[in-house]
Design a protein that fits this description.
Layout: E1 11-14, E2 17-20, H1 31-35, E3 38-40, E4 43-48, E5 53-57, H2 59-72, H3 81-94, E6 101-109, E7 123-131, E8 142-146, H4 167-179, E9 184-188, E10 194-197, E11 201-206, E12 209-212, H5 223-234, E13 239-241, H6 246-251, E14 254-259, E15 263-270, E16 273-274, H7 282-294, E17 306-308, H8 311-317
Parallel strand pairs: 8-9, 8-15, 12-13
Antiparallel strand pairs: 1-2, 1-7, 3-6, 4-5, 4-6, 5-17, 6-7, 9-10, 11-12, 11-14, 14-15, 15-16
The structure holds 4'-deoxy-4'-aminopyridoxal-5'-phosphate.
Length: 318
């Protein structure tokens, strides 16, 4: 969005074409709005001023996860992950973004009728992209609190699917954390093991090894989680995926959260107990530094993580 541009003039992708945000509104009785029957993604774009280039991070992986979420909810996306990633690039180009961006693709049950169910209700798909402002503001480290809200169980609703309605769980936990003076919530699973933040996965460091909850701990299997694991492995660290107890959080030497919006964020304290010496730990810092370069296409090893929006289009335009 160029400066001075209004939301109404933003170009979005909806009902199979590019249109103005103002021309893509949904009705009050829309199923997805009434019952939370939708799936979504959060994809990041990183602006590199020197090159005047916008790099989109792991778009295909996000659309693959969206396909999986949709399958669980008996929905269908209109195109393949590759085709939707291509539309995302075109959408960013049409908006002429020259800033960090946040991209929100979503598929939702679109009938305007009463009746909670999944079958026989039509699906609609859209992508909205907007300029991004830091998810945790200027914070360099987070003060986290354990939530009294447990992370949704897979026996209640599919935790590994990014489902609109499930975000009531995150919203309750996050609001409670803020009300208690924290920046972010950490939720436990029903069996009392650490699951994740309201919109981030969690890693702890013990004796120089990284530990993160395995995918059966009701986590959303984050794209950033995978990036952090790849970087950590390539830096020579050991990663263990296993259940984590609450009290292990208090004695970890480092803790960090990962998410598309949050990036890789050090945790400064948990339940008012300082993590390590309260500063960003050396292992966290090493992973963050590589990640920050990688998302801007500056790490040759991970160059295929990002796709430039403008490079090919400039060539095509001659
Ligand atoms: N858990 C939840 C509940 C989330 O909403 C997110 C953000 N999508 C994550 C974890 C992190 O996932 P990703 O790294 O793919 O953004």
């Amino acid at each position: 969005m160029r400066s001075g541009m209004q939301l109404d003039d933003l170009i979005v992708y909806a009902r199979g074409d590019f249109r103005r945000y103002a021309d893509a509104k949904v009705g009050l009785l829309t199923h997805g709005l009434q019952y939370g029957t939708g799936c979504f993604e959060g994809v990041r774009g990183f602006w590199e001023q020197d090159e005047r280039e916008l790099y989109i991070l792991h778009a295909r992986d996000h659309f693959r996860r969206l396909h999986d979420s949709a399958k669980i909810l008996m929905m269908k996306l209109p195109k393949s992950a590759d085709a939707l990633a291509e539309i995302t690039l075109e959408l960013c180009a049409r908006n002429k973004f020259e800033s960090e961006v946040y991209i929100r693709p979503f598929v939702y049950k679109a009938d305007e009728a009463i009746g909670v169910r999944l079958e026989g209700v039509k699906d609609e798909f859209a992508i909205v992209a907007i300029p991004f402002v830091g998810y945790f503001g200027e914070a360099k480290g987070l003060r986290c609190g354990l939530s009294s809200w447990r992370r949704i169980e897979d026996t209640v609703a599919p935790a590994r699917a990014k489902v609109t309605g499930i975000y009531i769980n995150s919203a309750l936990a996050k609001s409670e954390a803020i009300a208690n003076g924290f920046d972010e919530a950490i939720m436990l699973s029903h069996d009392g093991h650490v699951s994740e933040g309201s919109a981030e996965n969690i890693f702890i460091v013990k004796n120089g090894d990284l530990i993160t909850p395995d995918p059966t701990q009701n986590i959303l299997e984050g794209v950033t989680r995978r990036c952090a694991m790849t970087i950590a492995r390539d830096l020579g660290f050991t990663i263990v995926e296993r259940p984590i107890d609450r009290s292990e959080l208090y004695t970890a030497s480092e803790v960090f959260l990962t998410g598309s919006a949050a990036g890789i964020m050090p945790v400064e304290s948990i339940d008012r107990r300082t993590v390590g010496d309260g500063k960003t730990g050396t292992i966290t810092k090493a992973i963050m530094d590589v990640y920050e370069r990688a998302v801007r296409g500056k790490e040759p090893r991970y160059r295929d993580w990002v796709t430039p929006v403008y490079a090919n289009r400039r060539v095509a335009a001659g």
